[in-house]
Amino acid sequence: MSLGEHHYSLTVRWTGNLGDGTSSYRGYSRDHDVQIPGLPVLKGSADPTFHGDRSRYNPEQLLLAALAQCHMLSFLHVAVRHGVVVTDYQDDATGMMRLNRDGSGQFESVTLHPQVTLADPAHVALAEELHREANQVCFIARSVNFPVHHEPVTLTA
After folding, report:
1. Which residues contact 15 (CB under 8 A, 6 or more apart)?
2. C-alpha angle with apex 35: 63 to 137, nearest 5 degrees?
């Protein structure tokens, strides 16, 4: 049962025409802008391996960020529902993408490393379990076709 549809939109605008468009593989920039009304423009490019600008965000980083953000927000939500007070949260997320001989590729896995600080030491075991529940309700994790692993560390204040 759906509680309703939520629609999202944005504009991706290629800014990398160096004068001759895509007349050659190295003759254009991969730079682009991600525009969402009311928000600062997100400067994007390809991964430097694929001739992108390392000073701009690439889609692979943004996919990893989306998974880490979604898990954090889901974890904070389930923590509140279970009466677990979180006072700090940090995640040093990692992902592995594999390239195929035909030039295609795909993410094979992501591992989130959330480091969560709790107000009450009595909630450590429960907090560890809440990562599984958070993964079950995370919209992004539920939408990808590769495993999202969790290696949490729980601290107390």
Report:
1. 29, 31, 32, 33
2. 35
Tokens 């992902």 sit on residue: 95
Q: Among 148, 146, 125, 121, which residue's Cα sits nearest to residue 137?
A: 148
In the block, which residue shows the tokens 């591992």? 111
- For residue range 49-81, what is the model confidence (pLDDT) as tens digits? 999 999 999 999 999 999 999 999 999 999 999
Could you give the CA distance from residue 31 to residue 46 in angstroms, rounded to a whole number?
A: 7
Q: Count the neighbouring beta carbons within 10 Å of the beta carbon of residue 108.
A: 11
Q: pTM of the prediction?
A: 0.92
Please state, in angstroms and as integers, the Cα–Cα distance from residue 146 to each residue in 24, 94, 107, following that order. 33, 13, 7
**91: burial class by Cβ within 10 Å (0-12, 13-18, 19+)?**
buried
- What the block records as the tokens of 123 is 């909630």
